[in-house]
Design a protein that fits this description.
CATH superfamily of the largest domain in chain B: Dipeptide-binding Protein, Domain 3
Strand content of chain B: 15-25%
Distance between the termini of chain A: 22 Å
Distance between the termini of chain B: 24 Å
Number of strands of chain A: 9
Largest sheet of chain B: 6 strands, mixed
Structural class of chain A: alpha+beta
Radius of gyration of chain B: 21 Å
CATH architecture of chain A: Alpha-Beta Complex
CATH class of chain A: Alpha Beta
Number of domains of chain B: 2
Strand order of the largest sheet of chain A: 4-5-9-8
Radius of gyration of chain A: 17 Å
Number of strands of chain B: 14
CATH class of the largest domain in chain B: Alpha Beta
CATH topology of chain A: Dipeptide-binding Protein, domain 1
Largest sheet of chain A: 4 strands, antiparallel
Largest interface: A-B, 64 and 76 residues
Oligomer: heterodimer
Structural class of chain B: alpha+beta
Number of domains of chain A: 1
Strand order of the largest sheet of chain B: 7-11-6-10-8-9
Shape of chain B: globular
């Protein structure tokens, strides 16, 4: 695949041994490392193992069931702006499936969880009954651009299913 | 961004290439290098390449303690360690209703029989930290009042003999990477008249094994119980070797419905519960081990993920 095919804005940088790091990663969860190297989520975990904001720059629980997140002003590498609507799109996509996450159903949002883009930067998620695992689950909810969803997505072309492929 | 190759759960392309996103919003995590995952060269050759400085490989992940110990003296590369959020623990086989390992006193006795520091030093060249249960001291959810179970072989012997285990060979299923750990456990057991037999987990383990060693890691933002404890003891656990545990499930449910600012107290409650019930053979937290070329400033992650945003070429 050439750089243009991924929406690379270019810049003419010549890649060679001088600016390439080659790694061998035999881990069985290498697929997850690649995902977290190339996608972004509302939050992440830093190299000291501590949760940090990522595409969400902050969040707060308004009450025991309502989580409000403020989205960062950012732009995808293909030029599309990131906003609250893109978060909502990511949520709607993952909720289409019963068990999308390879590690297991513990990462699923309950079916009655709702997500609303209040404005361009604000997301309000409602978790009936509460869910203290919400931020852990958001770590596994990828927020790619529209182009990713339209051209690739997580659906396995062989099976037509995204179950276990997120 | 990904520009070549794929890495799936069950397959990988020969190379996976990632190039920096020139418009990325976070300057602190904006990569400066192209990353190539070489999925062909293999681990052994990769380690040799780092040691020799031939330029083919810069970082090799997930070395075993034996591989790290055997890394040659080199001015071209070194072993880098990370106190990651990991555990190495023994899962008792409680699958049969009459299993002796269903008795918490017997599980505790085996814990008392094992000298964890000896196992770590002899079996893993010291690459790790002895911990009380599943969480390292100082981490989110660690209980400052908890200590590792003591080494008390005489107390262990009395209980194990009463349970009919005197002189018994304890069958331990494990990855070949942990064969040294099993041998060290065997040395501990030999001091009270028992022994240990290593059985590789490559292939079908015998139905009547006693313990299965499992390495596991926590990738979560301060939510270890869902990722780790649940995977061993929860009703949907994939590593559980026995019946469901309604007490654990109730604690997990309590955690899920505790407002987030108060969850750490419940995580500590879970840690105390699994240690009080000796739910596993607690061993230690293995360091993650890397072979790293001298030309690279490599930032490993406590999550055990090969995230490489901060990795740089020196100079």
């Amino acid at each position: 695949m050439d750089a243009q095919a991924t929406g690379d804005p270019g810049g003419g940088k010549a890649w060679g041994p001088h600016n390439t790091v080659t790694v061998v990663d035999p881990s069985p969860v290498n697929w997850l490392s690649i995902t977290w190297n190339t996608m972004e989520e509302a939050n992440r975990v830093d190299h000291d193992g501590i949760g940090q904001p990522s595409l969400a720059e902050s969040w707060q629980w308004l009450d025991g069931e309502t989580l409000e997140l403020k989205m960062r002003d950012a732009v995808y590498q293909d030029g599309e702006p990131f906003d609250a609507a893109m978060f909502k799109l990511g949520f709607d996509k993952v909720q289409e499936w019963t068990n999308p996450h390879p590690p297991g159903a513990f990462l699923n949002f309950a079916r009655d969880v709702t997500c609303e883009a209040v404005d361009e930067r604000t997301i309000r998620m409602r978790f009936p009954g509460g869910d203290s695992a919400a931020l852990m689950k958001l770590r596994g909810m990828h927020l790619p651009s529209t182009r990713f969803w339209n051209e690739w997505g997580f659906v396995d072309p062989k099976t037509g299913s995204a179950e276990g492929h997120w | 961004m990904l520009t070549e190759g794929v890495s799936l759960i069950d397959s990988r392309s020969d190379r996976v290439v990632m190039e920096p996103n020139a418009t990325y919003w976070n300057p602190a995590r904006k990569p400066t290098v192209r990353i190539v995952y070489d999925n062909v060269i293999g681990k052994d050759a990769g380690i040799e390449s780092v040691a020799s400085g031939d330029g083919r490989v810069d970082v090799v992940f997930d070395l075993t303690p034996a591989e790290a110990k055997a890394f040659p003296q080199s001015d071209k590369g070194k072993i880098q360690t990370k106190k990651a959020k990991t555990i190495l623990t023994g899962v008792f086989n409680e699958n049969k209703p009459d299993s002796v390992w269903r008795d918490p006193a017997v599980r505790r006795a085996l814990n008392l029989a094992v000298d964890r520091h000896f196992v770590l030093d002899q079996g893993a060249h010291g690459y790790g930290t002895v911990i009380p249960a599943f969480i390292q001291p100082g981490r989110y959810g660690a209980d400052p009042g908890m200590s590792p179970l003591p080494h008390d072989p005489e107390a262990a012997r009395a209980v194990l003999e009463r349970a009919g285990l005197g002189g018994r060979e304890v069958v331990i299923v494990a990855s070949p990477s942990w064969q040294g750990v099993v041998a060290a456990i065997g040395q501990c057991l030999s001091r009270i008249g028992l022994s240990a037999r290593f059985v590789s987990d490559r292939g079908d383990p015998p139905e009547d094994f006693d313990i299965k060693l499992e390495w596991y890691f926590d990738w979560t933002p301060q939510y270890p119980v869902a990722c780790v404890h649940r995977e061993f003891f929860g009703k949907d656990a994939t590593l559980r070797q026995g019946p469901e545990d309604p007490e654990f499930d109730a604690l997990y449910d309590k955690l899920l419905h505790t407002p987030e600012p108060q969850t750490e107290a419940v995580v500590r409650e879970v840690e105390r519960y699994i240690q009080d019930r000796s739910k596993a053979l607690f061993l230690y937290s293995p360091f993650t081990l890397f072979a790293v070329s001298d030309r690279v400033a490599f930032t490993p992650y406590d999550t055990c993920m090969s995230e490489l945003a901060e990795t740089r070429i020196k100079g």
